[in-house]
Protein: Acetylornithine aminotransferase
Amino acid sequence: MSNISRDTFDSVMVPNYAPMQMIPEKGKGSKIWDTNGNEYIDMAGGIAVNALGHCHPAMVEAITSQANKLWHMSNVFTNEPALSLAQKLIDATFAEKVFFANSGGEANEAAFKLARRYASDNYGSEKNEIISFFQGFHGRTLFTVSVGGQEKYTQGFEPLPGGIKHATYNDLDSLKALISDKTCAVVMEPIQGEGGIIVPDAEFVKGVRELCDQHNALLVFDEVQSGMGRTGKLYAYMHTDVTPDILTTAKALGGGFPIGAMLTTDKVAKSFVVGTHGSTYGGNPLGCAVASAVFDVINTPEVLQGVEARHEKFKQKLSAINEKYNVFSEVRGQGLLIGAALNETYKGRARDFMNATLEQGALLLMAGPNVLRFAPSLLISDEEIELGLAALEKGVAKVVGES
Structure:
């Protein structure tokens, strides 16, 4: 189609998104070019998806090779790429069984259904309550958005699925007050992403696991955003002394190709007997071949160790910007999931900083109205970090100057 512009979006698309005026056309590594040929540094990573940047050779080779073999066969059959990827995930984690879907929301939908089914099979149908946390985010289906703890995403979609309660993240007493023998699962992000890049205390995470054990409830870790090397380990739970019963993964799993997975143990997986759950495209050969290639690149010491060094570089540069302009109350996060929280003076203005930075040639994200979020490629170079944060500094200077 010729004559495509941002106005085209308004005429053809449902208005549930408000995309930027700039339309990206192609990318390579951590650089993006728009339809006018302007170049940008990508520090957003497609919201923690493009973990290997854009058009990584291993991904291009995997998709091209598989595209010439087999795309889809339905789950009446299995396929080699799916089995190979499942084995890799099992070998690298606590998991013994895998279910494939197409997105994080679908992986979570599967996890929540499995948790209820497992409780029903083993303890009876009364044990059906799910507890999650305020400011959590678990997807956009009606079930996952109800488990997520942000009211703005559920307004107008009532009545919502029942049997869901919310505790306060990083506050063990608030969970203690809610958990009971009716609880079938506690669902949490090991780092809250959309909720503001909140890293919990080690004691809190340990306490959640202990409460789950006391009440025969499953612990579900939503690692859709924190997984696949994002924190410097393959999954964020590996930084803790805690192992979940179910883990969900997506976003970076396919590096930009839609795929999600739910990982669990043999014991829990038994409840998904033939016919209990499914997905037409889940585990398709194309997605699994790409994800397998992404996995092979990320799950190496050099990539995982490199994440920590890049984290330090981001932190130092953000601190230097803050010393000059005094806009952040703190810089937090783990690995390459970083949040710069705006101080009282600039509260609510994350979008202004994001827009101003885009004008200066770099992409970043928000995590709510008060936090700038960085989730770049795990392979972003030092030079690209410098360029991206130089653009941010110019954007900050502009917003501060206009305030």
About this structure: The chain is about 40% helix and 15% strand.
